[in-house]
Amino acid sequence: MLWATSDLHGYDLSAFQRFLKSSGFQTGDHLYIIGDVIDRNGDGGVEMLEWILNTDWVTLIMGNHEAMMLECSFLFARPMSMEELGELDPEQEAQLMRWFQNGSAVTIDSLMNMRLNRPRMFERIQDMVREAPLYMEVETEERKLFLVHGGLDRFSPDRAPDSYSLRELVWTRPEVTDRYWEDRLVILGHTPTRYYGEHGQMFRTDTWLDIDTGAAGGGHPMLLRLDDLKPFYVDNKDL
Ligand SMILES: [Mn+2]
Q1: According to the model, what pLDDT value does residue 78 have?
Q2: What is the pLDDT of residues 216-237, one digit of tens each?
Q3: Which of the pair, 199 or 53, is modelled with greater confidence?
Q4: 179 CA distance to ligand 1 centroid (A)?
Q5: Which of 108, 136, 223, 236 has the fewest Cβ atoms surrounding its Cβ within 10 A?
Q6: Domains of the chain by residue range
Q7: In angstroms, rounded to a whole number, what is the distance separating the alpha carbons of residues 72 and 54?
Q8: Ligand 1 centre and the CA of 62: distance in Å?
Q9: Is the pLDDT of residue 79 over 70?
Q10: In which band, very low, low, confident or very high, does the pLDDT at 104 lie, cut at 50, 70 and 90?
Q11: Where does 2-238 sit in CATH, by number?
């Protein structure tokens, strides 16, 4: 079976592993994490990144938070004093400010620690995120699926998937009336489903399905079994 989740945002790793198990995830299955492992809660998702790196049945797809982390890699190039932070060029300052406003403090703290104490693991994690795909095309017995963090901004059925920029894929938020392909379903996160009037559940239109159930704001992630589009939600036994 193939599974997807997204927008974990520092969700507790052990709780997530219990949730996987109680949902029926089995040896031989594969999990796609459709972006935004990091920032906002807990250790900022750094332990989760290490688990993804060490687990060959998990694939990370790029989210806008991972993209912000990569933009700010100058932060980790060498130890920086507060004075040096005050001397960043305006572009770096804007990038850091944006990441900071998006809940990066916990992540920066964990990453600084790891860079100091486990520099090799720090580098391997940075490389993994740098190499994360912007989208993935997956096929099940039932249908073709397109996994992407935000959606497809300025969509046209005639545009090739690889013609979309990072910005168009990880930062966009589809309106309810937006339509994508007729012959493949887009699975996305990034926009909490409450934005579409759902609370803690997935939101589906004809051509796309949003699985961001709001772990960013202290809620729980969900799992989608891609083979039959069956949703799984965290309940008390997983906590
Ligand atoms: Mn996002």
Answers
A1: 73
A2: 998 999 999 999 999 999 987 7
A3: 53
A4: 20
A5: 236
A6: 2-238
A7: 24
A8: 9
A9: no
A10: very high
A11: 3.60.21.10
**103 CA from centroid of ligand 1 (Å):** 12
- What tokens were used for 22? 């109680």
- Ligand 1: centre distance to CA 172 (Å): 9
83 alpha carbon to ligand 1 midpoint, in Å? 31
pTM: 0.96
SS (H, E, C) the chain: CEEEECCCCCCCHHHHHHHHHHCCCCCCCEEEECCCCCCCCCCCCHHHHHHHHCCCCEEECCCHHHHHHHHCHHHHCCCCCHHHHCCCCHHHHHHHHHHHHCCCHHHHHHHHHHHHHCHHHHHHHHHHHHCCCCEEEEECCCCEEEEECCCCCCCCCCCCHHHCCHHHHHCCCCCCCCCCCCCCEEEECCCCHHHHCCCCCCEECCCEEECCCCHHHCCCCEEEECCCCEEEECCHHHC
Give the distance (Å) from ligand 1 centre to CA of residue 116: 28
Ligand 1 centroid distance, CA of 66 (Å): 9
Average pLDDT over residues 205-224: 96
